[in-house]
Design goal:
single chain; 405 residues; mainly alpha; Growth Hormone, Chain: A; 18 helices; globular; disordered C terminus
Length: 405
């Protein structure tokens, strides 16, 4: 059983220079998994206000949401080599600014501005890797496997990143934890920048450069918002529960348990669903998510939270993979980087709302109240998946035909 699951990934990583850009992009996206939790720990340590911590953290994610399509459109039109140096420089400057304004006791509004700039500077390395895969591979099955691998990579950053940040925050300081995540990302982006041979050729068509939202993907975005709602609420709940238990490191452990479930399911789903239709993947993943995630509403102790979080992780990555695979089919190659950025935008919007609403719920009702947001998350993802299956099935081309055109 193990060999059939591993073989598809071995085959795509054997492509010339493929594993190098995929690994560099994995390190490059670490900041995206650590900046939010790093901001929460930084603000909570200074103010003990979870609503404020969640709102500031939400600004990190909101900044990424606003600028991500612009970074990606620039990568499509000007090339990854042109945008990565600017992304590296702004990431370093904005993270330094956030740490400085918090530690110097600057006005709270400046915390929000700096947090927004941190998010705005975090170019989506996962999107850059996906674009390289789509241009490198020809087989629809191989493309689906590669997109699954990158989704697993996204989740695996949450296995490594949050525990490392929370551990460093506890052993050294929250500022050091946040800074470490940024430094790792900058190093990964620098290595990705050096690998110019696998970067897609820039598209210079003025028509393509003007279209910020590629046609056909808007119907998938509410499902990503729904997943983001759960991410935001779980982040705040994990920090709140850990502080109540007297162990800040526990927050990273709880988030890692969730992410491990996501990684496991992503690898299995990516290998086994390659022969499915795109709509079947979307429908299966969204219905499973809608059925499992509401179980978080029943949790009121840490062992149960760990178990249910792992189970929720199992149904999360398939939603992300299936959406990316469908986008790869319906979007023109010249817009692929821009199109692949929009799921992150929708996720970011969901995380911002989930963190803000979850933080207020925690302030009013205690740490466990943050999980109430997960009910809305399940309903939104399930409804979006069913609606897409119903509306797209009559007109969606077969993956093979769409990819070969």
């Amino acid at each position: 059983m193990a060999l059939p699951l591993v073989r598809p990934y071995v085959e795509i990583l054997a492509q010339p220079r493929a594993w190098r850009f995929s690994l560099a992009a994995w390190f490059g996206r670490i900041m995206r998994s650590t900046a939010g939790i790093g901001a929460i720990l930084l603000i909570a340590d200074r103010s003990s206000n979870y609503a404020l911590a969640g709102a500031v953290s939400g600004c990190v994610v909101l900044g990424a949401a606003v600028l991500s399509p612009i970074w990606s459109r620039a990568a499509d039109s000007r090339g990854q080599g042109a945008v990565l140096p600017l992304a590296i420089a702004t990431a370093l400057l904005s993270a330094t600014a956030l740490i400085a304004v918090v530690h110097l006791g600057a006005p709270v509004w400046s915390w929000f501005v700096a947090a927004f700039l941190v998010g705005a500077s975090s170019i989506d390395a996962g999107t850059l890797a996906r674009a390289r895969w789509v241009h490198l591979l020809r087989s629809p099955h191989d493309k689906h496997t590669a997109l699954a691998l990158e989704s697993v990579g996204d989740e695996f950053t949450f296995v490594i990143g949050p525990p490392v940040v929370t551990l460093l925050a506890g052993l050294v300081s929250p500022a050091f934890g946040l800074a470490t995540g940024v430094a790792i990302s900058v190093a990964g982006l620098a290595v990705l920048l050096a690998q110019r041979s696998t970067a897609p050729v820039p598209v210079h068509s003025q028509h393509e450069r003007r279209r910020l939202l590629p046609a056909g993907i808007i119907g998938l975005l509410p499902g990503y918002v729904g997943v983001g709602l759960m991410f935001g609420s779980i982040d705040l709940t994990a920090v709140g529960v850990a502080r109540e238990a007297g162990s800040q490191v526990l927050a990273g452990v709880l988030l890692a348990v969730f992410a491990i479930g996501s990684v496991v399911s992503g690898l299995v789903f990516g290998a086994l669903s390659g022969g499915w239709s795109a709509i079947r993947r979307v429908l299966f993943a969204s219905v499973a998510f809608a059925a499992v995630v509401p179980l978080l509403l029943l949790v009121r102790d840490i062992p149960s939270l760990a178990i249910v979080s792992f189970t929720a992780g199992l149904v999360t990555t398939p939603v992300l993979i299936s959406g990316s695979s469908l986008i790869e089919i319906i979007v023109d190659r010249s817009e692929i980087t821009t199109a692949m950025a929009w799921p992150s935008v929708a996720l970011s919007l969901g995380v911002t709302i989930g963190a803000t609403v979850g933080g207020e719920a925690i302030n009013r009702g205690g740490a466990w109240a943050g999980l109430l947001v997960c009910g809305a998350s399940a309903a939104l993802v399930g409804g979006c998946g069913i609606l897409n299956a119903a509306l797209r099935r009559p007109r969606l081309p077969l993956p093979e035909r769409a990819s070969s055109s």
